[in-house]
Amino acid sequence: MRARPSCTALIASLVLSMTAAAWAAELPRSGEPTFDRVIELVNANFYDGKALDHFNAAAEAEIADPVTSLSRTSPASRVDSAITSVLASLKVSHTGRFKTDTIDYFELADIFRFAIRDDMRRLFPPDGAARYPGIGMVTTVENGQRFVSDVYDGSAAKNAGLLVGDEILSVDEQAYREIGSFEGKVGRSVEIRLRRHRDAEPLLLQVPVESLRPLPMFERAIEESIALVETGGRKIGYVRLWTLSTRDGLDLVAEALSSGRLKDADGLVVDLRGRWGGGPADAAEFLVGGTPTFRLIPRRGEATLANFRWQKPVVALIDRGTRSGLGLFAYTLRQHAIPLVGERTAGALLAGRAYVLPDDSLLEVAVSDAVIGDELRLEGVGIAPDLQVALPLAYAAGKDPQREAAIAEMVRLLQATSTPQIAPAQEPAATR
Known about the structure:
Layout: H1 7-26, H2 33-45, H3 52-64, H4 76-88, E1 96-98, H5 103-111, H6 117-123, E2 132-134, E3 137-142, E4 145-151, H7 156-160, E5 167-171, E6 189-195, E7 203-208, E8 210-212, H8 214-225, E9 227-231, E10 234-240, H9 249-258, E11 267-271, H10 285-288, E12 294-296, E13 304-307, E14 314-318, H11 325-335, E15 340-342, E16 351-356, E17 362-368, E18 387-388, H12 401-417
Parallel strand pairs: 10-11, 11-14, 14-15, 15-18
Antiparallel strand pairs: 1-17, 2-8, 3-4, 5-6, 6-7, 9-10, 12-13, 16-17
Helix pairs in contact: 3-4
């Protein structure tokens, strides 16, 4: 027989329910479901309670705006602008709304798949795996023009010859849309019209559309980025950590360094100019940790790399894409006197969590502060490079002066630390 709850427990439960209801009733309310749910989730979960008065005041201002007041009947564009405005009032990272017509939405849904697991199968039928139609490129708008900002290694876009800095003019003769340009076209090719150089004639590229699963795609991009560059008489290894959120990304890098394509590298350039952070706090240990490399060797079968430590020089690339776990990675390298090349990091180092909103968009909320040691916070501050190198985007034609500078820095380090070869002294001739 099931035990009945005690009278005391029932009263406590009732009090808590009434308290929660009263708290919710006191929050700003517009009658618009998605906006109101944002207000509730931020108030319930945002890490800094002292910021909520200002946040709620911003929400009240949006609701009561004398020109464009927010209500249940407001158009979607007005709701979008109101949500963007109130979230921006918090002035922190890891807090934003992501709609279903953006690449960010699908990538974050995969990264936060456990937090939103109850909604995954409904959002991504039939198996609950986040995926979207695309070609493996990301764009950004500068001065009203849209440029390619990232091309994922191993992607269809990379293989077709799209370059960072290309201006995207159209896809299949229509304006570019992150998801809409590729919907219903998986397995077919789209025609991308682009301009590679300022005032040049447009180019046409045929690019096959794929069904992309974000984390497996990032894992492939990490593996495909691995390269061995021979310059200045040295072999320089290179790898780009697009994110630390993949299951096996770091293991792939360790295998490449220990026994794969990078095992003969004299030094390593690790590219932390990523898309997302995530990952364990000790992710940089394989480059700076003190424990030795070791393998597990069974009686039968292949040996397993159980622990790996890189013992040769490292140079790291950073920029505003170096955020969250990648920002902590960069800080760890800085603490071990590893040179950082590029631009200041994003200063985005909080812990976020995702929530599904009534319109199926995603809300990310910063739910925890992040403190290094006793009191160091990188949120809003970032990490400055040792060697500042800009990367102009528009019409870059794939040129990467930051990567070139990092490789040059590695060559300089290797030359500075190499020990001159001294010919052995001749023994004196024996006396006869």
